[in-house]
TrEMBL record:
<protein>
    <recommendedName>
        <fullName>Diphthine--ammonia ligase</fullName>
        <ecNumber>6.3.1.14</ecNumber>
    </recommendedName>
</protein>
<dbReference type="Pfam" id="PF01042">
    <property type="entry name" value="Ribonuc_L-PSP"/>
</dbReference>
<dbReference type="GO" id="GO:0017178">
    <property type="term" value="F:diphthine-ammonia ligase activity"/>
</dbReference>
<dbReference type="InterPro" id="IPR014729">
    <property type="entry name" value="Rossmann-like_a/b/a_fold"/>
</dbReference>
<dbReference type="InterPro" id="IPR030662">
    <property type="entry name" value="DPH6/MJ0570"/>
</dbReference>
<feature type="domain" description="Diphthamide synthase">
    <location>
        <begin position="1"/>
        <end position="229"/>
    </location>
</feature>
<dbReference type="GO" id="GO:0017183">
    <property type="term" value="P:protein histidyl modification to diphthamide"/>
</dbReference>
<dbReference type="InterPro" id="IPR006175">
    <property type="entry name" value="YjgF/YER057c/UK114"/>
</dbReference>
<dbReference type="InterPro" id="IPR002761">
    <property type="entry name" value="Diphthami_syn_dom"/>
</dbReference>
<dbReference type="InterPro" id="IPR035959">
    <property type="entry name" value="RutC-like_sf"/>
</dbReference>
<dbReference type="Pfam" id="PF01902">
    <property type="entry name" value="Diphthami_syn_2"/>
</dbReference>
Amino acid sequence: MKVVALVSGGKDSCYVMMKCIQYGHEIVALANLLPVDDSVDELDSYMYQTVGHQIIVSYAECMNLPLFRRRIRGSSRHQKLSYQMTPDDEVEDMFVLLSEVKRQIPSITAVSSGAIASDYQRLRVESICSRLGLVSLAFLWKQDQTSLLQEMIANGIKAILVKVAAIGLDPSKHLGKDLAFMEPHLLKLKELYGSNVCGEGGEYETLTLDCPLFTRARIVLDEFEVKLHSPDSIAPVGVLHPTVFHLEKKGNADSSSLEEEPGLVFEVQGDGPNPPESTCQLDNGIADVVGQTRTRVNLSKTGKDNTFSICCWLEDSSESSTGLKEDLETVLTEIESQLSKHGVSWQNVLYIHLYISDMSEFAVANETYVRFITQEKCPFGVPSRSTIELPLVQAGLGKAYVEATLHKGVLHMAGQLGLDPPTMNLRNEGAVAELNQALTNSEAIAEAFRCSISSSAILFVVFCSERTKQSERNQLHEQFVSFLDLAKSSRRVANVIDSIFLYILVPDLPKSALVEVKPVLYVEEDEKTDDETRQGQLGEGDYSCWGYKPEKWHQDCLQTRVIDGKICLNVLSISAEVMRKLDEPSGDEEEQLKRVSRFCVNLLNKTLSENSFSWQDTTSLRIHFSTSLGVSVERLSDIFETAFKVLNEMSGGGVAFNGLKEPIFNLVPVLGAGNTSASLDNIITCELFSLRS
């Protein structure tokens, strides 16, 4: 990735640039924030290091890179841990700065920062990156500080102390001293007082004068002044104010060129873009498109507060749609309207399935998506997301299809690809290697929530690209189970949920990946997990009005998990063989689908009832159907709606639809599905998730 590096002059921001290059990224620009007044060394800032800012201008020459600088106009107005866009906050200066960098260098996709332990700083950088559609790279995050300090020194970071503010550090003795010289003393202070050896507790700050990235020159500090801010007898505070410095050429660099070149340094001014206003204009501009396009909204709502799923797609849009961008704008606008009608917004959405017709247009889809679902609209974090290519056009749909999920009690993890975290590149050894990496990434995320995918996962949905070789596909499930078994044995967890696996065959995935894993975890703490697999006996009376009799094999089609009496997950699989068993000798294809729909609806209804759940507890019902059926979404929707209406009438009305006009289910066209990766021959797969408070 092409990276703009946030540089304060400190050792951390310089060393993280070295890590970026080590992992295959390219530093293409530098960005720095400094005080309005050049004579001021330090601001009262929770966010930025500014001591030594007078020297940062030389970094452009030392690295031969453009340096973008902005003077800090804001202050620390929003001081809560999770940042929300706040006018006149100092974080907004970073937004304006990076916005301009991105405008001038559109190829930039990532931002590096030297965050090690401060959630306050890291979350603010991530917030800005989210708003700008950039990736935050913080390779030093949570590293052991003793090892990290030794690593920096060993790898050529030449830095001096420019601020001290801790017991055991004396401004008159230690300011201006080299980091390598200070290392033994810093380690001693850690032993004596528990100090942070990298200065993460504010003990000290540094200024880098040389490092391997300074290919043209090093900085030589000729003269400086020590300014005492606090004469405290225990922990005096002082800063170093540089007064005279020069550049010393390296290698074949021309010393005559080592003067400040205005062409490499850019001062960023202005207030920057106004996201709320532009978003409003965007919505108004789309309104006409929405009004002219035929849409169909699927809404499932339990009748409880903020617990439902909304699904929206376009039908018969081949004539009215001019492309993916327009279709997605229409769909997102319609969902936003539906959310508003129910008194909620994007900030209440926990998970989004973004289905598109062509993965080669991912960049277009992502750019459109992030204009709608922004950090401003989701101050506590944007929803997790999976982006999948589906045969939408083949199924008679438009080019975009979105499902938004709103419910609590579970962790909907974003779809995980087999990306190596430092390089952000896919594992190139094939599908099995991608799966292992995706599971490793999923486990790391789960650990942040103090759980494990091996013990807390209710469901694993695994999307497999049709480009995956059958020989590799055959190995995926076995490898998946082996990974979980190993994780279980290493953690020794008492209460383990018996996960359900659902493999779905799709045309393509982001980055042309072969596998994407979407774990759904139960993360409620301090409660005993009661994991049950219930498949009750089926009574003939339950089927008398549906046109078929119960058989023992019916229960083999259904997997059910009940967790703590609160969550009920059902995955019902209908293969071609099951369809043949349900069919009558004289039945045509239409009648066959009607019988299958009635079978699915009744079996799910019976299972809910047996486990003391009802349709009012439903949060989502996805019906994945294979395009090999050769039936349109509209026709299949009518067939399942009829089955639900029959159930509604049998139960006295109002049960299946919860008083809503929209269907309770979402139809999702796929190439195939199955309970194992080796056999993806399901014609219809029902995924029913119910939640009871």
